[in-house]
């Protein structure tokens, strides 16, 4: 068994133990050597039970957020800390720095995302998936969309060949919009309606690449998305929570796009790239 596999199994054991206990907080960011209850380094979004003991190594740091309050604590090493009901207690080292946020994470979503992440990390360690390079539609092809002017994306055999894209409402014969594009991307120039199902078709060189369906989110939900969308220079954990919020409201593919972007920024957190799949 490789050292990486031992680490993965230790992480999975930690997650199983965390799931058995009632989590009051979860990990939103970490760097360097961090251990919970003496186990291997946790994954981002790992749940933490009351009484959990965290050890932070030299030049390392971990941020944890309380699910009920959205209060986030950053623990910097070297130091030892313990998860309390509403705040982190400092056992040794620098006191935990706290900040209040507007986030109120859904505990069920935290658990679901953490399980998905750990399972994906395990599968990636067992076998490397083959890249799918054939022509296909990329976005949006499933779930909800949190914008009324989506940018459609697809791949095609000849990247420079012109493509035709048609947007329509299922059940209606007349297309809602038709346009031409190159390079596998097309931003819709007109706004769609909220809470409505749409379909789109792309053809290139006389061959249909595919047909996709999606549904725009409700107007209220999209207002909530824009209200919670963090600024580019916001804390890393704010972007993590926003990706999880997108998943919560059903904008699954937009959440995956954000996970992918965060994974490029933080190559030390393989669980992020796992969530992008």
What is the assembly state of the chains in this entry?
Answer: single chain
SSE class = alpha+beta
Q: What portion of residues is helical? A: 25-40%
Work out the strand percent: 25-35%
Task: Provide mean pLDDT, rounded.
Answer: 87
* Amino-to-carboxy terminus distance: 26 Å
**Main sheet?**
5 strands, antiparallel
- How large is the radius of gyration? 22 Å
- The DSSP helix count reads 6
Strand tally, please? 17
- Strand arrangement across the biggest beta sheet: 3-1-5-6-9
Overall number of structural domains: 3
Ranges where pLDDT stays below 50 over 5 or more residues in a row are: 1-12, 14-20
H/E order of the elements? HEEEEEEEEEHEEEEEEEEHHHH
Globally, the shape reads elongated
Characterise this structure.
The protein has 277 residues and is α+β, with helices and mostly antiparallel strands. The chain is 30% helix and 31% strand. The protein is built from 6 helices and 17 strands. The chain has a 5-stranded antiparallel β-sheet with strand order 3-1-5-6-9. It has a 5-stranded mixed β-sheet with strand order 11-17-16-13-14, covered by helices on one side. It has a 4-stranded antiparallel β-sheet with strand order 2-4-7-8, with no helix packed on it. The longest helix is centred in the middle third of the chain and has 20 residues, at 107-126.
């Amino acid at each position: 068994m490789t050292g990486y596999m031992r680490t993965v199994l230790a992480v999975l054991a930690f997650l199983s133990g965390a799931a058995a206990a009632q989590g009051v907080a979860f990990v939103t960011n970490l760097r360097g050597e961090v251990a919970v209850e003496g186990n291997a380094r946790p994954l981002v979004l790992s749940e933490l039970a009351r009484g959990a003991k965290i050890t932070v190594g030299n030049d390392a740091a971990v941020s944890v957020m309380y699910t009920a309050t959205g209060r986030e604590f950053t623990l910097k090493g070297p130091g030892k800390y313990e998860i309390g009901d509403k705040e982190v207690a400092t056992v040794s080292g620098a006191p935990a720095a706290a900040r209040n946020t507007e986030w109120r994470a859904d505990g069920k979503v935290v658990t679901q995302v953490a399980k998905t992440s750990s399972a994906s990390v395990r599968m990636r360690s067992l076998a490397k998936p083959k890249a799918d390079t054939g022509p296909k539609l990329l976005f949006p092809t499933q779930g909800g969309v949190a914008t009324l002017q989506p940018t459609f994306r697809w791949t095609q055999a000849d990247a420079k060949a012109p493509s035709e894209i048609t947007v329509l409402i299922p059940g209606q014969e007349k297309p809602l919009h038709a346009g031409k594009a190159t390079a596998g991307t097309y931003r819709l120039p007109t706004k769609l309606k909220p809470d409505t199902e749409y379909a789109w078709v792309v053809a290139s060189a006389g061959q249909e690449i595919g047909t996709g369906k999606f549904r725009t989110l409700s107007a209220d939900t999209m207002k909530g998305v824009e209200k919670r969308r963090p600024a580019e220079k916001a804390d890393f954990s704010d972007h993590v929570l926003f990706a999880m919020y997108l998943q919560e409201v059903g904008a699954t593919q937009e959440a995956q796009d954000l996970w992918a972007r965060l994974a490029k920024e933080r190559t030390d957190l393989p669980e992020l790239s796992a969530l992008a799949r």
